[in-house]
Amino acid sequence: MEISSKENTQFFSYNPVLPVDRSSCKSESSASKDTQPCCGGIKVFLGALSFVYFAKALSGSYLKSTITQIERRFDIPSSLVGVIDGSFEIGNLLIIILVSYFGAKLHRPRIIGAGCLIMSAGTFLIAMPQFFMGRYRYERFTSTINSTASISPCLQDKSQTPLSSLEKSQAKVNAGCEKEAGSSMWVYVLLGNLLRGIGETPIQPLGITYIDDYAIEENAALYIGCVQTVAIIGPIFGFLLGSLCAKLYVDIGFVDLESVTITHKDVQWVGAWWLGYLIAGVISVLAGIPFWFLPKHLPKPERRKDSSTSSEQSKFITEDNKDQHKFYQQQVKITEMAKGKPLNLFGNPVYILYLCASIIQFNSLIGMVTYKPKYIEQQYGQTSSKTNFVIGLINIPAVGFGIFSGGLIMKKFRINVLGAAKLSLGSSFFGYLLLLSLFAMGCENSDVAGLTVSYHGTKQVTDYEHALFSECNSGCACSKTDWDPICGENGVTYVSACLAGCHASNGSGKNTVFFNCSCVGTLESPSQSSSAVVGPCQKGNECPKMFLYFLVISVITSYTLSVGGTPGYILLLRCIKPHLKSFALGIYTLAIRVLAGVPAPVYFGVAIDTTCLKWGSKRCGGRGACRLYDSSALRYVYLGLTLMLGTVSIFFSVAVLWVLRKRSSSHDENLSTNGESGTCGTKSRKDNFVNSDHLIQTTYWPEKETRL
């Protein structure tokens, strides 16, 4: 979302080394060549900046891939995870104005290098809790951990209660339970992500303006396009790294993996989430090293030495004040720039309507992307590893191809402003229409006794806390807060072996088998007790097929929504007066970050939390992370909220198109009478529109790396 930072820098600052005549330019250029003979080329800077874009995109997407892992590791709800995710935007907002204004006057490459160090420090800080909060503890019955001795899960005699249950008993809480070392460690993850946002701030505005200042005009757009292309590759590797780390146990290297009694398919499994942050941090450090050896200024290209302004800057200067341009370039008065601008800008109905449409649409997209891994895991019973692999290898390339296609369509068919509005609207309409079909591609709830079905096989309608207990387990001293699921031979999952009424067990670890389970036999043959194995039962037979359908529609939807990104941004640029573009883009970026990037993950998380059926319990009391969601409710809340916001944004887009059509009609009437053309005329010359540098340079739209 840093697209406007480049133009903010150009608008609010002047170039202190801009040559007054050719002789001074040559001396400046020769001085630069003498001081930087080996690493002063623009291509070296381009390569370094591309690597930085890769690094920041990788770390950002890796955070998205570890949302569920962080939630389980720190035993926190989705709403709190949303706050952690939004802290990146807050960090970026803290210094974006300072960087945009003062950055161009300082040593831009070194500021970018410093930003990389700060970004890496934040990434390392996110991983630090793993080394201070002790080993991860999951809920398991004692016999599945320590020995092969047969211990009755049905605790009829309280002296038989395992240590793990005693630790959670009220007696221990009353005796004074010391807080776990990791109870508030999630704060370090939040602070680390905040620091990431601060460090990432100078990369976009200062890097792009540096290229634009010192590259040949014909090559500038190509260079910037290369950088943005690399930014698409970063998230692919970020999610693939998340897939790899999710398969590794969280305490790998610290515990004997043979003693781990859960697999990566278990809902309590936590992968080595911290390992990816260490890798991303090292990559960020390496990416920042070259910038410390790059010069503050590069030699101006020969064909740009003779002009006192670049063609890009001239687009912001109207014909009436070209004579005053030199004075304006050397001394900029903030009060004069700000005078009348808010009124002029906010009086533009196209800008206001498009801004509202973008804010609402980005709320929809950011919320959808943030919790997409969780949705796939809970709805289709997929592991975190497989979920991240699918997103990284299928969804993100579709987004990149969609953005490219949007720009290609604009250039191929020489589409004007009105056509861009139609293409953007059509992309959103068909994208959300495809998303609507996902309501029919969900999986039913797993049969969990006492939660989704009763112990007698009927659908659950009563309060689950009371429904967990039945006649079949009434003689057992069970806890309703435990979550140690087992799968009965009848295909029903039970919250714990105790609540399943199991009286005996055999084996240890992952191979534990429970016998004489009185509740397991009540569905088909009440008189006969049955057995059960460790872990929840798999989803229904139709679920894998539904997941395949979901992937196909998801990829098509990602592509369709992405096609409208470039036309929409071109529409924004073309309907603003030239001297207001920088200010307008700054307001646009600020509004997207404040009103979409920060709140969307939070209220999406709050909504998702309402669909939880079984909450985990912290060791010393208090509600932990959700263990089981209502699949149907989750589908309606997640997709419904996304579609509701998307529909509202479409109405605003329709209003934009209506205003443009109205202006187009008025413009045609003016042309027929006096031949004059308006500022935002949709019949502007197509050649100028297509060949404009902005068409290529602004194909980047906010957070495109993670728009899935």
TrEMBL record:
User: Would the keyword Cell membrane turn up in this protein's UniProt record?
Assistant: yes
Instruction: Name the CDD domains on file.
Output: MFS_SLCO1C_OATP1C
Q: Where is this region: Disordered?
A: 300-320, 667-686
Q: Where found, per UniProt?
A: Cell membrane
Q: Which GO terms describe its molecular function?
A: bile acid transmembrane transporter activity; sodium-independent organic anion transmembrane transporter activity
- PROSITE patterns according to UniProt: KAZAL_2 (PS51465), MFS (PS50850)
Q: Which GO terms describe its cellular component?
A: basolateral plasma membrane
| Kazal-like domain: residues covered | 466-521
InterPro entries reported for this sequence: Kazal_dom, Kazal_dom_sf, MFS_dom, MFS_trans_sf, OATP
* Residue ranges of the TM segments: 80-104, 110-132, 220-250, 270-294, 351-369, 389-409, 421-441, 546-573, 585-608, 637-660
| A Pfam family per the record | OATP
Question: Looking at the keywords, is Zinc-finger present?
Answer: no
Keywords tagged on the record: Cell membrane, Disulfide bond, Glycoprotein, Ion transport, Lipid transport, Membrane, Transmembrane, Transmembrane helix, Transport
Q: Where is the Major facilitator superfamily (MFS) profile domain?
A: 45-664
The topology of this chain with respect to the membrane is: Multi-pass membrane protein
Bias (Polar residues) ranges: 671-682
The reaction(s) catalysed by this protein are: L-thyroxine(out) = L-thyroxine(in); 3,3',5'-triiodo-L-thyronine(out) = 3,3',5'-triiodo-L-thyronine(in); L-thyroxine sulfate(out) = L-thyroxine sulfate(in)
Single GO BP term: sodium-independent organic anion transport
> Record's family?
Belongs to the organo anion transporter (TC 2.A.60) family.
Tell me what this protein is called: Solute carrier organic anion transporter family member
Q: From what organism does this protein derive?
A: Indicator maculatus (spotted honeyguide)
Q: Which gene encodes it?
A: Slco1c1_1
